[in-house]
Amino acid sequence: MKSRNVVRLFFSTLLIGGFSTLITSFFVKTEAYIKFMNPFDWFEVFGLVIFFLALGFVFSLISQMGYFAYLTVNQFALGLFRSIWPLLQVVLIVFALFDLVYFRYRSVEDGSLGIFIITAIALLVYGLVIAAIKAKETNRKAFIPALFFMIVVTSIEWVPGLRTSGGDYAWLMIVPLIICNTYQLLILHRLTKDKK
Protein backbone atom coordinates (compact mmCIF):
# COMPACT_ATOMS: atom_id res chain seq x y z
CA MET A 1 0.00 0.00 0.00
CA LYS A 2 1.29 3.46 -0.89
CA SER A 3 2.20 5.81 1.95
CA ARG A 4 -0.43 8.27 0.67
CA ASN A 5 -3.11 5.62 1.23
CA VAL A 6 -1.78 4.81 4.72
CA VAL A 7 -2.07 8.49 5.66
CA ARG A 8 -5.53 8.68 4.11
CA LEU A 9 -6.67 5.59 6.04
CA PHE A 10 -5.24 6.96 9.29
CA PHE A 11 -6.89 10.39 9.10
CA SER A 12 -10.22 9.21 7.70
CA THR A 13 -10.49 6.59 10.47
CA LEU A 14 -9.48 9.22 13.04
CA LEU A 15 -12.28 11.55 11.88
CA ILE A 16 -14.82 8.73 11.78
CA GLY A 17 -13.91 7.76 15.35
CA GLY A 18 -14.10 11.34 16.59
CA PHE A 19 -17.43 12.22 15.04
CA SER A 20 -19.09 8.87 15.81
CA THR A 21 -18.16 9.29 19.50
CA LEU A 22 -19.40 12.87 19.49
CA ILE A 23 -22.76 11.83 18.01
CA THR A 24 -23.01 8.89 20.42
CA SER A 25 -22.33 11.23 23.34
CA PHE A 26 -25.51 13.19 22.52
CA PHE A 27 -27.50 10.02 23.31
CA VAL A 28 -25.38 8.38 26.01
CA LYS A 29 -24.32 11.49 27.96
CA THR A 30 -27.41 13.64 27.36
CA GLU A 31 -27.49 14.86 30.96
CA ALA A 32 -24.00 16.36 30.56
CA TYR A 33 -25.29 18.55 27.71
CA ILE A 34 -28.64 19.38 29.35
CA LYS A 35 -26.87 20.75 32.42
CA PHE A 36 -25.46 23.62 30.31
CA MET A 37 -28.53 24.30 28.14
CA ASN A 38 -30.63 26.31 30.55
CA PRO A 39 -29.17 28.88 30.67
CA PHE A 40 -27.08 28.11 27.62
CA ASP A 41 -23.36 28.14 28.38
CA TRP A 42 -21.62 27.96 25.04
CA PHE A 43 -18.15 27.67 26.60
CA GLU A 44 -19.08 24.52 28.59
CA VAL A 45 -20.93 22.96 25.64
CA PHE A 46 -17.95 23.67 23.40
CA GLY A 47 -15.72 22.04 26.04
CA LEU A 48 -17.93 18.93 26.04
CA VAL A 49 -17.82 18.75 22.25
CA ILE A 50 -14.02 19.00 22.25
CA PHE A 51 -13.78 16.40 25.05
CA PHE A 52 -15.95 13.81 23.28
CA LEU A 53 -14.29 14.50 19.92
CA ALA A 54 -10.85 13.94 21.48
CA LEU A 55 -12.13 10.81 23.25
CA GLY A 56 -13.30 9.54 19.85
CA PHE A 57 -9.84 10.16 18.41
CA VAL A 58 -8.42 7.96 21.20
CA PHE A 59 -10.97 5.22 20.46
CA SER A 60 -10.06 5.48 16.78
CA LEU A 61 -6.37 5.03 17.60
CA ILE A 62 -7.21 1.93 19.65
CA SER A 63 -9.16 0.60 16.67
CA GLN A 64 -6.30 1.31 14.27
CA MET A 65 -3.72 -0.33 16.53
CA GLY A 66 -5.99 -3.36 16.84
CA TYR A 67 -6.44 -3.58 13.09
CA PHE A 68 -2.76 -3.41 12.20
CA ALA A 69 -1.89 -5.76 15.07
CA TYR A 70 -4.44 -8.22 13.69
CA LEU A 71 -2.99 -7.96 10.16
CA THR A 72 0.45 -8.81 11.59
CA VAL A 73 -0.81 -11.65 13.80
CA ASN A 74 -2.88 -13.08 10.95
CA GLN A 75 0.14 -13.29 8.64
CA PHE A 76 2.26 -14.82 11.41
CA ALA A 77 -0.47 -17.37 12.29
CA LEU A 78 -0.97 -18.32 8.62
CA GLY A 79 2.69 -19.25 8.44
CA LEU A 80 2.71 -21.02 11.79
CA PHE A 81 -0.62 -22.87 11.86
CA ARG A 82 -1.28 -23.04 8.10
CA SER A 83 -4.50 -24.95 7.36
CA ILE A 84 -5.76 -25.10 10.96
CA TRP A 85 -5.66 -21.31 11.46
CA PRO A 86 -9.28 -20.84 10.25
CA LEU A 87 -10.45 -23.49 12.73
CA LEU A 88 -8.49 -21.83 15.55
CA GLN A 89 -10.10 -18.51 14.65
CA VAL A 90 -13.57 -20.08 14.93
CA VAL A 91 -12.67 -21.48 18.38
CA LEU A 92 -11.44 -18.03 19.48
CA ILE A 93 -14.64 -16.42 18.15
CA VAL A 94 -16.75 -18.81 20.26
CA PHE A 95 -14.57 -18.14 23.30
CA ALA A 96 -14.80 -14.35 22.83
CA LEU A 97 -18.61 -14.51 22.62
CA PHE A 98 -18.71 -16.74 25.72
CA ASP A 99 -16.41 -14.27 27.48
CA LEU A 100 -18.69 -11.34 26.60
CA VAL A 101 -21.57 -13.13 28.33
CA TYR A 102 -20.24 -15.30 31.16
CA PHE A 103 -17.20 -13.43 32.48
CA ARG A 104 -18.84 -10.02 32.18
CA TYR A 105 -21.95 -11.28 33.98
CA ARG A 106 -19.80 -12.67 36.80
CA SER A 107 -17.85 -9.42 37.12
CA VAL A 108 -20.91 -7.22 37.80
CA GLU A 109 -22.95 -7.35 40.95
CA ASP A 110 -26.36 -6.27 39.76
CA GLY A 111 -26.41 -6.95 36.03
CA SER A 112 -28.96 -8.89 34.05
CA LEU A 113 -27.72 -11.89 32.08
CA GLY A 114 -30.11 -11.00 29.25
CA ILE A 115 -28.32 -7.76 28.36
CA PHE A 116 -24.99 -9.59 28.06
CA ILE A 117 -26.54 -12.26 25.82
CA ILE A 118 -28.18 -9.61 23.62
CA THR A 119 -24.85 -7.73 23.35
CA ALA A 120 -23.00 -10.89 22.26
CA ILE A 121 -25.73 -11.85 19.76
CA ALA A 122 -25.81 -8.32 18.32
CA LEU A 123 -22.03 -8.35 17.87
CA LEU A 124 -22.20 -11.80 16.25
CA VAL A 125 -24.98 -10.81 13.82
CA TYR A 126 -23.23 -7.57 12.91
CA GLY A 127 -19.93 -9.43 12.46
CA LEU A 128 -21.59 -12.01 10.20
CA VAL A 129 -23.05 -9.26 7.99
CA ILE A 130 -19.74 -7.40 7.67
CA ALA A 131 -17.79 -10.64 7.09
CA ALA A 132 -20.25 -11.61 4.34
CA ILE A 133 -19.77 -8.21 2.66
CA LYS A 134 -15.97 -8.55 2.91
CA ALA A 135 -16.09 -12.09 1.47
CA LYS A 136 -18.34 -10.94 -1.37
CA GLU A 137 -16.06 -8.02 -2.24
CA THR A 138 -12.82 -10.03 -2.03
CA ASN A 139 -13.00 -13.85 -1.80
CA ARG A 140 -14.71 -16.56 0.26
CA LYS A 141 -11.61 -17.22 2.36
CA ALA A 142 -11.88 -13.72 3.83
CA PHE A 143 -15.10 -14.57 5.70
CA ILE A 144 -13.61 -16.20 8.82
CA PRO A 145 -10.73 -13.69 9.24
CA ALA A 146 -13.22 -10.80 8.86
CA LEU A 147 -15.59 -12.38 11.41
CA PHE A 148 -12.65 -13.00 13.75
CA PHE A 149 -11.58 -9.38 13.49
CA MET A 150 -15.08 -7.99 14.03
CA ILE A 151 -15.74 -10.14 17.09
CA VAL A 152 -12.47 -11.09 18.79
CA VAL A 153 -10.40 -7.99 18.08
CA THR A 154 -13.32 -5.64 18.76
CA SER A 155 -13.93 -7.41 22.08
CA ILE A 156 -10.27 -7.03 23.05
CA GLU A 157 -10.29 -3.34 22.07
CA TRP A 158 -13.48 -2.87 24.12
CA VAL A 159 -11.94 -4.15 27.39
CA PRO A 160 -11.11 -0.66 28.81
CA GLY A 161 -14.72 0.42 28.26
CA LEU A 162 -16.06 -2.74 29.85
CA ARG A 163 -13.98 -2.16 32.99
CA THR A 164 -15.50 1.25 33.72
CA SER A 165 -18.18 1.59 36.35
CA GLY A 166 -21.58 2.17 34.80
CA GLY A 167 -22.39 1.48 31.19
CA ASP A 168 -22.01 4.96 29.68
CA TYR A 169 -18.39 4.68 28.65
CA ALA A 170 -18.83 1.07 27.51
CA TRP A 171 -21.47 2.27 25.02
CA LEU A 172 -19.51 5.40 24.17
CA MET A 173 -16.55 3.19 23.25
CA ILE A 174 -18.19 0.30 21.37
CA VAL A 175 -19.96 2.48 18.79
CA PRO A 176 -16.81 4.14 17.37
CA LEU A 177 -14.84 0.88 17.67
CA ILE A 178 -17.40 -0.99 15.57
CA ILE A 179 -17.70 1.83 13.03
CA CYS A 180 -13.91 2.28 12.71
CA ASN A 181 -13.27 -1.47 12.52
CA THR A 182 -15.96 -1.87 9.86
CA TYR A 183 -14.55 1.03 7.85
CA GLN A 184 -10.97 -0.27 7.98
CA LEU A 185 -12.00 -3.81 7.11
CA LEU A 186 -14.08 -2.78 4.11
CA ILE A 187 -11.77 -0.04 2.77
CA LEU A 188 -8.37 -1.77 2.92
CA HIS A 189 -8.83 -3.98 -0.16
CA ARG A 190 -9.91 -0.91 -2.13
CA LEU A 191 -6.80 1.01 -1.09
CA THR A 192 -4.43 -1.87 -1.87
CA LYS A 193 -5.96 -2.59 -5.26
CA ASP A 194 -3.48 -1.88 -8.05
CA LYS A 195 -4.66 0.90 -10.32
CA LYS A 196 -3.65 0.22 -13.85
Automatic annotation (TrEMBL):
<dbReference type="Pfam" id="PF14089">
    <property type="entry name" value="KbaA"/>
</dbReference>
<feature type="transmembrane region" description="Helical">
    <location>
        <begin position="84"/>
        <end position="105"/>
    </location>
</feature>
<feature type="transmembrane region" description="Helical">
    <location>
        <begin position="143"/>
        <end position="163"/>
    </location>
</feature>
<feature type="transmembrane region" description="Helical">
    <location>
        <begin position="169"/>
        <end position="188"/>
    </location>
</feature>
<protein>
    <submittedName>
        <fullName>KinB-signaling pathway activation protein</fullName>
    </submittedName>
</protein>
<dbReference type="InterPro" id="IPR024164">
    <property type="entry name" value="KinB-signalling_activ"/>
</dbReference>
<dbReference type="GO" id="GO:0045881">
    <property type="term" value="P:positive regulation of sporulation resulting in formation of a cellular spore"/>
</dbReference>
<keyword id="KW-0812">Transmembrane</keyword>
<feature type="transmembrane region" description="Helical">
    <location>
        <begin position="7"/>
        <end position="28"/>
    </location>
</feature>
<feature type="transmembrane region" description="Helical">
    <location>
        <begin position="48"/>
        <end position="72"/>
    </location>
</feature>
<feature type="transmembrane region" description="Helical">
    <location>
        <begin position="111"/>
        <end position="131"/>
    </location>
</feature>
<keyword id="KW-1133">Transmembrane helix</keyword>
<keyword id="KW-0472">Membrane</keyword>
